[in-house]
């Protein structure tokens, strides 16, 4: 099933879900990636400087990685198309208006927003308000 492209539908149906646990971003040299896959990263991305791993906080601590900043993950449960236009801008603006930074990972089915752990409640409130406002306009 293809993802949704219509921005109004994406916003009204986004269903933000705050995942359990805390996460951190870590970096390892590309040559050392295989040595760290046992940490079961929830995400990774290769850059010329190294490989970024998104790890559960406890796994990062056990491996001796710096454990800051601590992030929470909000998953937008709507199946957004990778070709949708405006979704990231809309939720980033809503979070930015609240002074909340957003680090976004777009996967095949959903967008995942990593926000500072201390801001999780406010971020959820901002995203739910954005969704409710759009739903009321539909």
Put the structure in a nutshell.
Residues 72-127 form the CASTOR ACT domain. By secondary structure, this protein is α+β, with helices and mostly antiparallel strands.
Element layout with pairings:
Layout: H1 7-12, E1 16-18, E2 23-28, E3 43-47, E4 50-56, H2 57-63, E5 71-76, H3 87-97, E6 103-106, E7 111-116, H4 120-137
Antiparallel strand pairs: 1-5, 2-4, 3-4, 5-7, 6-7
Domain DUF2241: 2-70
Domain CASTOR ACT: 72-127
Pfam family, one: ACT_3
Derived from helix and strand composition plus strand pairing, the structural class reads alpha+beta
Average residue pLDDT: 95
Number of strands: 7
CATH architecture: 2-Layer Sandwich
CATH domain fold name: VC0802-like
Order of helices and strands: HEEEEHEHEEH
Total count of domains: 1
Largest sheet: 4 strands, antiparallel
Ranges where pLDDT stays below 50 over 5 or more residues in a row are none
Global morphology: globular
Termini gap? 23 Å
Domain CASTOR ACT: 72-127
InterPro entries: ACT-like_dom_sf, CASTOR_ACT_dom, DUF2241
Domain DUF2241: 2-70
Plain-language structure description:
By secondary structure, this protein is an alpha+beta fold. Helix content is 30%, strand content 27%. It is built from four helices and seven strands, in the order αββββαβαββα. The strands form two sheets. A four-stranded antiparallel beta sheet has the order 1-5-7-6, covered by helices on one side. A three-stranded antiparallel beta sheet has the order 2-4-3.
